[in-house]
Amino acid sequence: MSQVLIRSPQHCARRGFSIDKRHKKLLLAFLTTLTSFVALVILVWLILHPAKPQFTIKEADIDQLNISSPCLNSSIQLTLLAENPNGKVGIYYDDLQAYAAYRGQQITVGSTLPPFYQGYQHSDLLTASLVGNGLPVADSLGYQVERDQTAGKLALSIKLNGQLRWKVGTWVSRKNMLNVNCVVVMAFQPGALVTPLSSKQGSRCSTSI
């Protein structure tokens, strides 16, 4: 006669997945450490709450701006001041590219700026040569330049796009998108040639992150 083994419900429950006490302690210690670290990072971030960097156009020189519809040739020399207003937060700048636009149309190709680190309450001068050769433009652009020449003012938009990372102590944040928009207004004498034009006024830029 064969034996029939009958197991109780309590015995079946004991066969399920279980974690011994030693592993439970290790898991609890890991979760506690992780939670404490995340809470510390959030607390530091809330206390410091870094302000956005500030950018100012120090000088912009148009060496060339020739429009022969439907193409345009341009050359602009740019000097930009970057300032970190934070007293306890550094900034890493990555993948920076600058270009010029006129009346909503891009008139130079993107110029790559080298990455750099900016310390607390530090400022740096950035220089770039913005060039556009044979760029296609709308037929109306030449007419708009003539209108601005008659009005005596030429307004250019200088764009700076890239990424930044905040640095607090040894902690560095993930990359954040950086978009800077500057407007440069240049005197444009009626009857004068389109080039050269120069602006040395400190035009403050808008910054979004």
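That was protein one. Protein two is written in the same sequence-then-structure order:
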Amino acid sequence: MEPAAVREAYARVKERLDQLAAAVDSERLREIADEVLMVARLLAREPRLRRALADIGRPTLARTDLLRNLLAGKVGNETLALLTDLVSGRWAVPSELLNATERLGVDLLLAASERDGELADVEDELFRFGQIVEGNEQLALALGDPIVPVERRTELVRSLLEGKAKPTTVRLAELALTGFGGRSLLSSLTRLVELAAARRDASVAYVVTAVAPTEAEERTLADKLSQMYGRQVSLKVEVKPEVIGGMRVRIGSDLYDGTVQRRLADARAGLAR
């Protein structure tokens, strides 16, 4: 979970982002997202710059002036305003500023998909791509190997997804390759799924079952979980025959395991005692 100070600093930027998302079209939002992610890459490459912009020992005006001088003529006014809000925040360590800049770029891409009515599709496509990667050891190694140049791994992602997934899905999958927020590839994809759901004011429920549920069963489960948690719940179902029967559901840190596999494990543990 993010520290409270980080959430507070990002909340101010999120408010400006939401105002912007209501005022400009999806194409412009994607352009701004690209500019923000360009700056994120710069911060990742330049640790001294990252430290200077995040140093709360320096006056806020000095940090924002540094940012404006650096980006003058290179990004649009909307991008500069968003990034100025970010730099004005209080960041305990420079990596928090970098992570927040990446998060801002992601949220802009998700806002663009929301404007186009594609947000739920992007969420599902990212989840399915994560399943494909997790289920294919060779693919996971090829995409997650930091020794392989990111350009080659990006080409592989595009060959797998372009024409089959939304452009935003492809863009976010590419971002996951470099470790969104310092995470592994699979953890990055999971976090991106959850951010897409959060943009729809939904929580994600990861469901593991031996047999694929029917649409009616999925609706019933989603409704029950929504009542329990007081908000919309987006189901992400994974079929694993090895659980034998029953169902395992995880929402955040909450885990409900009613699988036969779990009951057998408990029984074996009991006999061993």
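The chain has three domains: 1-116, 117-200, 202-272. Keep this in mind for the problem set.
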